[in-house]
Amino acid sequence: MNVRLIAAFFAATLISISCFSQTIQEDFKPSSLNQPGQEYPQVNSQGYARFRIFAPKADSVKVSLGLGGRGGTKLKKGDDGYWTATTEGPMDEGFHYYNVTIDGGKFNDPGAKNYYGSVRWESGIEIPAHDQDFYALKDVPHGNVQQILFPSKSTGTPRRAFVYTPPGYEKEKSKKYPVLYLQHGWGEDETAWSNQGHANLIMDNLIAEGKIKPFLIVMTYGMTNEVKFGKIREFKIDPFQAVLVDELIPYVDANFRTLTNRDNRAMAGLSMGGMETKMITLNKPDVFGYYGLLSGGVYAPDDLKDKAKPKLVFISCGSKERPDGVTKAVTDLKGAGYNAVSYVSDKTAHEFLTWRRSLHEMAPLLFK
């Protein structure tokens, strides 16, 4: 191919890409996470997001989207004082945090509901996923998510956790259940798995389909000693391990109908919650029988050597993360005689659709 043909080929390619990028379907609808009655932000069938902010005296407005989105969308001001813009490309399916920068100050979008992430309450937007049925609110029996406050002598404070109990828990007074202790990521809190992750709906649907053995999920705040972003290596597990193992687990076992041996107790977590899971399960292999790391690192056979053998090791991540490391780790664990399972979420990154899918895949494997 000569130089002119090469030049013509690239010119045609650029024109094609340009035309494609400009073809945005005008079927935008309000995000499912909007405040009641609010029209913006909106999403369309292709995964684009459109924002509209009223700031008549502002000089600049920008929307910064979380991981998996296309950050830094600059809005343009209209004569009516509203700033509007559409993301430069489609976003990953699922949930995203975002905030609005107005003249250098960081704010939340008044049109969207807020979710705790990045150590603050941030706006949230949901890009409908093609497989969203597994976490949809359906006409099936539902469990309950209740807040508990438990004493913590190690920290000198009362602490909070949320407990999911499956459908029928209140009626079946003699039945006891296994428990999954499920941890959030850095900058999030104990509300994340219910609000952003829809863990309760995932469980309700799996139970209604007869795909899992019902169990409790306990979600508590894992940042017992605070650490700033970029300094995760400074995090010490001992304070949180004391809260979880010595205080929360005994409280749950005393106040809920639980099966209290390691074969009926699991621990899993996303991102930093996975790091906590790995540290605690290796320190306390007699407490937990099932391990789950969701975008939260891996286990190596040497990590588990000479310890009580886990009944399951589940490791997952998004396809836009480091899936080769996950699949290799599980291959190595299987080769060493461990029951290990890997899962890679298609076309997602370090984000909640990855973790929703991971919980959906892991739950049926627990407590077998």
TrEMBL record:
Keywords of this entry: Signal
In its UniProt entry, what is this protein called? Esterase
Q: Which residues form the signal peptide?
A: 1-21
What domain of life does the UniProt record list for this protein's source?
Answer: Bacteria
The reply on keyword Signal is yes
Give one Pfam hit by family name: Esterase
TM ranges: none
